[in-house]
Structures are given as C-alpha cells and as structure tokens.
Specification:
5 domains, about 800 residues, 29 helices, single chain, elongated, two-stranded antiparallel sheet, mainly alpha
Length: about 800
C-alpha cells in the first residue's frame, strides 16, 4: 500500500512539474527556452512530458480554429474593400506621373540654373575655406622663411627663438598638413644645426682668446703698472678727490656691453649688467681684442636647448687644456726677459678672461673652478720659475725678473687671486739673486785687485785729495797738514772696494723693493748678503791675491795697510745701511757686519805670507852659499852671499815702516830665526862629513855679520839684544869649538848658569865628529908610513875623550 501511495505521490509531483514547464514555455521568449527544455531532458519522465505537450498543442489548435471561424466574414469584406482601393490608387498614380512629367519638363531650366547656383555656392565655400586655411598657414610659412633667413645670417639665437614659437604656437594650428609634418621633422635637425654652428663659433672664440691672451695680459699688466705709479704719486702728493670703486677699477679694461643685436632674453638668461663708466677714460680692454658675444650666444642657445651643463663642461674642459698649454714655459724662457714677460702675459690674459666670464655670466664658470685653475697655475708657474731662474747668472736679469714677477702678482691680486706663494717664491729668488751678485762682485773685486798697483795713492792738488776723501772715509790730521804733493797710505783698491761694497748694498736694496717687507726684514736681508760678500767673496779674492805666486813683499805690505783701513771703514758701512733702512743697529734682531773679521783674516794671511816669502828669499840666498869646509885659511870678512842677504833684509824692513809695529817686529824676528836655523842646518847637514877649524872660523864671521845686523835694529821696537837671541844657539856652539872650552862645557852642563846652555850634546857631538874625521884624514895623508906626531895624537885623544863624554851625556839624558 505504501508503495502505491508513494507512486501516486510521485506521479502527482511529476504532473505538476510538467504543467509548470508548459506554462513557462508558453510565456517565455523563444531564445530563452533552452534551459527549460534542458530541465525536461535532465529528468526521467520526458516521454510523459511529450505526451502532455502533444495534448496542449491539440488544445491550442482547436482554439485557433474556433477563432478563425468566428472572424472569417470580416476578413472577406476587408479584401473586397482593398480591391476597390487598388483601382483608385492606380488612377492616382497615373495622374501623379503625368503631373511629374509636366513638372519636369517645365522645371528643366530651373534645375539647370539651380545646379549652376549649387556649383557656385560650392566653389564660394571652398574658396572661403581655402582662404581661412591659408590665413592659418601663411604665418607658419612666414615664420619658417624668417627662420631660414636668420640661419643664413647666422643670427642663431633669434633663430632658436623663432623655432620655439613656430613649434609651440603656429605648427599645432596646422598640424594636419603634410608640409607641417615636414617642418616638424626638420625641427630637430635645425636645432642640431644651430647647436653645431654655435659650437663652431665657440671654438673660434676659444681660438681667438688663446691668440689674444698675450695682448690682454700685456694690457692688464701695463694698467697695473700705471695704477701702481699713480698710487706712488698719490702717496707722495695726497690729493682730495672722488674715489673709484675697487670693483670698477679692477674691471676697467674688461667691462663690455652686450651687442644691440642680441635679444633681450639673452641678457636675462646669462649676462650680468656691467657698470657704465661714462666718467672713466676709455682704455683698450678684452672686449676690444676679443668679441665675447659668441660665448654668450652659445651659452644662451645651449640653455634654451636644455644642454647648458654640456656646454659648461665642454667650455671648462677646453679652457683647462688651454691653461695647460699656457702654463707650459718655452725651453729658452730663461735666456731673455721677453721670454718671461710673454709667459706672464699669457697667464694673466688667461685668468683675466676667465674672471671676466665669471662676472658677466651666471654659472658658466664659478669661483671654485677659477680657484682650482689658479691653484694649478700657481704651482706650475712657481715650479717653472724655480727651474728657469736657476739657469740665470746675470743679476740684472734676475732683478728685472723679480720686478716682472711683482707686477705679475700685483696684476692678478687686483682680480682677487691669492699671490702670497709668489712673494714667498721671490724670497727664494732673493737668495739666488744674492748668489749671482756675489759672483758678479767676485769678478769686480778680482779686476780691482788685479789692476791695482799696490802703491800709496799720490795726490798733487786739493781737488784730488777731496775726491779720494769723498770716495773713502779717511781722516788723518797729519796728512792734511802736509803740503802737496803727498800720498795716502792706502792704494787705489781701498776706495774702489769700499764703493763697490756700497754698490752691492744698493743692489740688494733694489731687490727688496715692492716685496711688502718690513724695514727690519730688509735690513736683515742686506746685512746677511753683505756679510756673505765680505766673508766669502771679498775674503776669497784677497786670499787669492795673497797666495799668488808672483806676489812681492811690497804688495803684501800694501795689502796689510789696505785691509787695516778697510777694517776701520766697517763702522761707516754700518751707518750707511742704517741710513737706507732706517733700522737702528741697537735693534735686538739686527745682524752685525763681519767685515772686521774678514779684513783681520786677510791681514793675518798677508802677514803669514810675508813671513813665508821672507823665508823663501832667505833660502834663495842660502842656496848661493859655497863654503869650503876643508879650507885651512882663516877668512877676514863675511861671505858675499850673506852680505847680499843682509842688504836685502835691511831694504825690505825699511819698507815695513807703515806696517803695524808688531807685524814688522814679528817679520824681522821670524826672518832672523829662520836664518839662524838654516845656518845651523847648513853646518850640520849630513853631506858635510868633514870640516876644518878654518872653515868654522869663516862660518863664525858670517854669524857675526848676522849678529851685527840684529844689533843694528832693522825694525824699531825691539828691546836690547832681543833680536840677537835668534842667533844664540849658533853663537854658543861656535864659541865652544873656536875656544875649545870643553872642560867648562862638560863641567857646567845641565846647570842654569852654564856658559853654553844652548849647546845640545847631540849637536856638539855631530860637529866634533866632522872635525875628528878631517884631522884623522889629514894626519893619514901627511904621515903615510909614520906614527902620528905627538901633538896631533894628544889632540885626537882629547877629541875621542870629549866625544866619549858627550855620548855619556846623551845616553844619561835619554835614560
């Protein structure tokens, strides 16, 4: 039962579902019926649904048939009425056709006229449209034509402005025309052409300023020199007047006006207005030598094109290259001052142009870039000057170079460049200048000393006397009282050397000018250089003269006198330096002159040379000595060579009257000692193995002649018998042998009161052996085959005994 109930329930649900689907099919649009049918086929009762569907279709057919049967008579009536209307419509059609044919025939001419009017109106409209379009195109073409004209006339900045207006204002209005597209395509090419042409102008400008840097620098340095001269005049003669602005002053030669052809925007985009100088005198400047407009135009063009940074980098790179070329000095720059001047002119011209660009453009170059270039230039310039100035040996050229460097520094300082390192380098060149001065004055002193006659200066009139006094500070009351003619004690080289020292001081002072040094620094520099002149240059010159081989005693004596007077003049040199530097010698850091030491050293060297020269002369006379050591004859006079020697010494010491007393006395004592020593060596030399008492007597006469010379007082100032003490050794030795006083010698030897205190046992033994050999040889010759004679044998025994005792003294002394 349950199954039957369940089957019935399911059949009812299916029937309801089929009914719903059928209603949905009836009410739904045909295009959307698919999902409904799908639901039928998805189920399992589609057979039953089809049956339902067939039943519903049959019901609808019956209803349609009923409706048609109900309206059939009305349909037939409507068809009958329609057939009647068709006939009437045909008539109407025929009438309309006839009327149309008549109308067409009658309005044929009007149609033709209307067609003609239509064509005219169309042409009129086309002409009007064409005029309108041409009115739009003509300004574009005019602007393009203007652009080409500006390009031809090389007015590139206006051309660029025209191009900008053309691109942004005119071309957008006619952008649909083909010629407009051609123009748009040409615009980048035109911009590149303008860039290329302006860059070419810039290259020409760079080449122009490279060529004119020398002239620009020369003009700037001339103006700096004129300004300095004017400042000096103002300092000397102060005057009241309006002061010019320092900035204006610095740019007097480089203020320039923008060309009238340049557009106003060109000034606005990179050119600073420069102060007018209506009241200032026009002077040739950078704008007169170089046209700066290309760089301004190129800067504006690149700025407008958005490539300003590219332009700035290119400009700076090219100027750096030019700077390196300018800073490369020529290899022969040191030969002439013009070489240095051209080198400086180029550097000044380069930086003056850069400074002008800095102050007339906005950002093309900046202060950091200028400072970097200046640092490089400063280091290279200083290195080049150090190298080339070291080759210079002419002090005048070094002085001119210093003045040129000062002018170079002052010129650049006006433009704000730091130049302290240049002045520091000038202090280095100052040392080199001092060295070249010393070399020059070395030659001057050498010529003065070589040309001097080493004789006192004779004067025959008051005028000549005052002339010498004017050249050299000398005061001598006794000389002034003497009548003319008279002589100064010194020779001509004294005033000449004194004046040359003053000239040297003047030369040193010239270098210190314009170096911004204090008076103390200038004074210290002059004193140090003068000390070098005195202690090195003049001292060496004097030493060379003194050590000259052919120098005579007279010349040496005169040199001593001259150096004495030069030594006294040192205080006047001190006063001279004080007067020109205005620095008192009592100042704490003031350097003292070493002239006194220099002249003392020269005088001492001359004195030593006199002593040496005298001894050499004595040796030359002694070489003429020809003693016959074996003679038995007793002489009656001194040897000829010794007489000549004594005469020479007397005449020589007579010249020493002007020398200081101690010098003459020392020379005389030295000569006597050397003579005594040489005579002693002559007597004891090993080659003389034998000598007779007769030869000893002759030698005694020569010594007596020497003693007589010493007693005569050839040089005043010696105490009594002081000079004779030089011959005391010879005298005691000769007295011992001539008097044969051996008993006294041997008995008193070693006692302070010994008569022969200065006789050395070794010397006595040497001389005794020479006499002994002679006696033995003589006895052998006289008694070839016999015994010695008694007195000779006794004497020989005595000699042997004395010799033995002398050997004993010698051995005891050594022990």
């Amino acid at each position: 039962m349950e199954r039957v109930k369940m089957a019935e329930a399911e059949s009812l649900e299916t029937a309801a579902e089929h009914e719903r689907i059928l209603r949905e099919i009836e009410s739904t649009d045909t295009a959307c019926i698919g999902p409904t049918l799908r639901s039928v086929y998805d189920g399992e009762e589609h057979g039953r649904f089809m049956e339902k569907l067939e039943t519903r279709i049959r019901n609808h057919d019956r209803e349609i048939e009923k409706m048609c049967n109900f309206h059939y008579q009305g349909f037939v009536d409507s068809i009958t009425e329609l057939l009647k209307v068709r006939g009437e419509a045909q008539k109407l059609k025929n009438q309309v056709t006839d009327t149309n044919r008549k109308l067409q025939h009658e309005g044929k001419e009007l149609v033709i006229a209307m067609e003609e009017l239509k064509q005219c109106r169309l042409q009129q409209r086309n002409i009007s449209a064409t005029v309108d379009k041409l009115m739009l195109c003509l300004p574009v073409l005019e602007m393009y034509s203007k652009l080409r004209d500006q390009m031809k006339t090389k007015r590139h900045y206006p051309a660029l402005k025209t191009l900008e207006h053309l691109e942004h204002t005119y071309l957008p209005q006619v952008s649909h025309y083909r010629f407009c597209k051609v123009m748009v395509d040409n615009i980048p090419k035109l911009r590149e052409e303008i860039k290329d042409v302006s860059m070419s102008d810039l290259k020409d400008f760079l080449e122009s300023i490279r060529k004119h840097s020398d002239k620009i620098g020369e003009t700037a340095m001339k103006q700096a020199q004129q300004q300095r001269n004017l400042d000096n005049i103002i300092l000397q003669q102060p005057r009241i007047g309006s002061k010019r602005k320092s900035k204006k002053e610095a740019y007097t030669i480089f203020d320039t006006e923008i060309e009238s052809t340049s557009p106003k925007s060109e000034q606005d985009s990179g050119i600073l207005d420069v102060e007018d100088e209506e009241d200032d005198e026009e002077v040739p400047g950078a704008q007169d030598l170089v046209d700066f407009s290309p760089v301004y135009r190129c800067l504006h063009i690149y700025s407008v094109l958005g490539a300003r940074e590219t332009f700035e980098n290119y400009y700076r790179k090219q100027r750096r290259k030019q700077a390196r070329l300018v800073l490369q000095p020529p290899s022969n720059m040191h030969e002439t001052l013009d070489g240095y001047r051209k080198y400086f002119n180029q550097i000044v011209g380069f930086f003056v142009v850069e400074d002008h660009i800095l102050h007339t453009t906005q950002g093309l170059v900046n202060r950091a870039y200028i400072d970097e270039l200046w640092e490089m230039a400063l280091s290279k310039t200083i290195a080049a000057l150090r190298t080339h100035s070291s080759y210079c040996s002419d002090p005048n050229l070094v002085l001119d170079l210093k003045n040129l460097i000062v002018l170079f520094a002052d010129t650049l300082q006006v433009y704000g460049f730091p130049v302290n390192q240049l002045f520091d380098m000038l202090l280095e060149i100052r040392d080199q200048y001092s060295e070249t001065l010393l070399k020059k004055w070395s030659g001057i002193f050498r010529n003065i000393l070589d040309s001097d006659n080493y004789s006192p200066i004779p004067v025959t009139s008051e005028e000549m006397y005052k002339k010498v006094i004017g050249q050299f500070p000398f005061q001598d009351a006794e000389l002034e009282k003497q009548p003319f003619p008279k002589k100064f004690p010194f020779s001509e080289f004294v005033p000449k050397v004194y004046n040359q020292i003053k000239e040297f001081i003047y030369a040193c002072l010239k270098f210190s000018e314009d170096l911004h040094l204090s008076s103390t620094e200038v004074d210290d520099m002059i004193r140090k250089s003068t000390n070098l002149l005195l202690t090195r240059t003049l001292s060496n010159s004097l030493q060379n003269v003194i050590k000259r081989k052919n120098i005579g005693l007279t010349e040496l004596v005169q040199i001593i006198i001259n150096t004495t007077h030069l030594e006294k003049s040192c205080k006047y040199l001190e006063e001279f330096i004080t007067n020109i530097t205005n620095v008192l010698p009592e100042t704490v850091h003031t350097t003292k002159l070493y002239g006194t030491t220099t002249f003392k050293d020269a005088r001492h060297a001359a004195e030593e040379e006199i002593y040496t020269n005298l001894n050499q002369k004595i040796d030359q006379f002694l070489q003429l000595a020809d003693y016959d050591w074996m003679t038995g004859d007793l002489g009656s006079k001194a040897s000829d060579y010794l007489v000549d020697l004594i005469a020479f010494l007397r005449s020589t010491f007579a010249v020493f009257t002007h020398l200081p007393g101690k010098v003459a006395q020392t020379a005389c004592m030295s000569a006597c000692k050397h003579l005594a020593t040489s005579l002693m060596q002559l007597l004891l030399e090993a080659e003389v193995r034998q000598l007779t008492l007769g030869a000893l007597q002759q030698f005694n006469l020569d010594v007596r002649e020497c003693e007589q010379f010493a007693r005569s007082g050839p040089v005043p100032g010696f105490q009594e018998d002081t000079l004779q003490l030089a011959f005391i050794d010879l005298r005691q030795l000769l007295d011992l042998f001539i008097q044969w006083d051996w008993s006294t010698y041997l008995a008193d030897y070693g006692q302070p009161t010994c008569k022969y205190l200065r006789v050395n046992p070794v010397t006595a033994l040497t001389l005794l052996e020479k006499i002994s050999r002679e006696m033995k040889d003589t006895s052998r010759k006289n008694n070839m085959f016999a015994q010695f004679r008694k007195n000779e044998r006794d004497k020989q025994k005595l000699i042997d005994t004395v010799a033995k005792q002398l050997r004993g003294l010698i051995s005891s002394h050594h022990s």
